[in-house]
Amino acid sequence: MLEISKLVKRYGRDEPVLKELDLVVEGNSVVSIVGASGAGKSTMLRCINRLVEPTSGSIKLNGQELVNLRGAALRRARRKIGMVFQGFNLIDRLTVMENVLAGRLGYVSLYQAISRRYPQADIERAFTLMERVGIAHYANKRADALSGGERQRVGVVRALMQEPEVLLADEPTASLDPRTSEQIMKLLQSLASELSLPVLINIHNVAQAKAYTERIVGLRHGKMIFDGTPADFTREALDAIYGGIEAPDEDEGEDTKKPALATRKEVTDDPL
């Protein structure tokens, strides 16, 4: 369970980017965070994994307070927090397998990391996860030879290699075409269910948030102003979050109307 209480982030003397946010995510919930640029979506995710230091408040993961951790204790806690990035954050000159195994860096010695001598159990788990998301045949291919969707799947597997207790995805589809974006959203949705893993997705595409997540949290100017199901996400809620301006992909056409749940077969049989 992820518990955020009274979370504040302020830079210098400026107005806080986050203003006493409260959020609880448990089980295998898939939660989307929506809001205009500057609403605080990415800052919130980065406070959770301490890439950004909270100014005040509490962040607990399965009962452990994260805000006050330092040094080795912080490194151990970060192993439990998987992160999927918009820009993939892969090392292009390394192979897919080497990038995936980077998810185990927090668990191996410095010598093993430098020499890339990972335990056989880690290698076997990497193959299992890569097969699950359809990229095992790229294991020895350089990361820079992959398409955007394939690169993002590598990023997802790398995060899962940490054996995380929560998975954060910061605009995971922003760099992808519409069809590939939906495949990645289906993948995150199904993995949350299979692994009983809570997933928080910072996303601009409102239609995808409504189609592929079971809960939507809306931020505006650092405050949470909506927390409910896609069915509760009315035009009034949309206007409140975006201030009456047109939200990204707010109108769902035929190509964006997807079932609320995607099957494992849909994900694995629909190649990028």
UniProtKB/TrEMBL annotation:
The keyword DNA-binding does not apply. GO terms for molecular function: ABC-type phosphonate transporter activity; ATP binding; ATP hydrolysis activity. InterPro entries: AAA+_ATPase, ABC_transporter-like_ATP-bd, ABC_transporter-like_CS, ABC_transpr_PhnC, MetN_ABC_transporter-like, P-loop_NTPase. Pfam families: ABC_tran. Keywords: ATP-binding, Cell membrane, Membrane, Nucleotide-binding, Translocase, Transport. Residues 2-246 form the ABC transporter domain. This is Phosphonate ABC transporter ATP-binding protein. The lineage of its organism: Bacteria, Pseudomonadati, Pseudomonadota, Gammaproteobacteria, Oceanospirillales.
